[in-house]
């Protein structure tokens, strides 16, 4: 029996933020010190982001509101709403995105109907309300009232993996299960002006988006590419508990993010991959670059740079992650699903192609997964989780691991202004 991710769809709010325009707004805020202004420009310019989407329509310079809550375009001032005001907007704006993404994913599976769905798993770390998004999806899509509902809240950027892992477990336990996994993050609700480097970094990176997947083990052949869900692992790095956190303040949720995070990932990424690759000996025997596809959560440019260098991956293997960052920014838990969708939609070079996926979050937590992209799917044939060939001899396990930059200036690099914006995971 093969559990497959049969459809993966995304949705974003209609309001687009141009990175350069957003930078100029944040840099012009009163109360910024000279260092704060420099940090704003360095973070926004170094983030490798062109555009982001936001559910806060008044954040654009062209917006006009009689009673602005987040941004007064007339004065150019960023405002500071309370956590309640921000969360109320989350409930109003996240609900249609949850429903849109879920509806698109289900529509992409014509072999399934709303009545087939047995479980709904929703994910978000940027707001709360109850009855929650799981309830709203059931009502809006006409799912059976007996559908089992689960919500994963406040886990951070890696939460799509626990959600998908739960979906696989449901299908492993019940071969007839059909699980709808939906992630919506409205990170821009929590931006604010500040001289604090963590806050500035978040303002330069975070964005809003939604993604939904349909997971099932039902024997329903399809001509569309699907992802066989091979294995998931969780690893906590031995350091980093104080380097990344997500707290609730009086004026929104507050990010704690040390610029040392990319260095932590660089030092522990190979160890975090070991238990995952141990489940696929042929993959473990080869170089990391022998795995055709890498779905890496683009928490920031420096994160991607570190992973690429440490694992000696090609520029082509990082395209899905870098293009997602450039076009959408960091949408927390939804982001890696955008990356997986990019890979799923790439023209296939082989009938079966391995994908290694990973995301990072508070803890420091590293979530990893192995998928197999199947261009044509026969429900009776097991997925292999293997590339067509694998070279012998691992690279990158001996300390120098292909990350040539770290031995020279890695200690100082994390503290430079140019490195600050890319630290978020």
Walk me through this protein's architecture:
This protein is of the alpha+beta class and 425 residues long. It has a domain at 226-422: Thiolase/Chalcone synthase (Peroxisomal Thiolase, Chain A, domain 1), CATH 3.40.47. The chain has twelve helices and 15 strands. The protein has helices at residues 19-27, 34-46, 83-107, 133-141, 160-173, 197-205, 261-277, 281-284, 301-311, 319-328, 335-345, 404-413, and strands at residues 4-11, 15-18, 51-54, 71-72, 77-78, 119-124, 148-153, 178-186, 208-216, 226-236, 244-249, 252-257, 293-296, 352-361, 365-374. A nine-stranded mixed beta sheet has the order 7-6-8-9-1-10-15-14-13, with helices on both faces. Strands 2-3 form a two-stranded antiparallel sheet. Strands 4-5 form a two-stranded antiparallel sheet. It starts with a strand and ends in a 12-residue tail after the last helix.
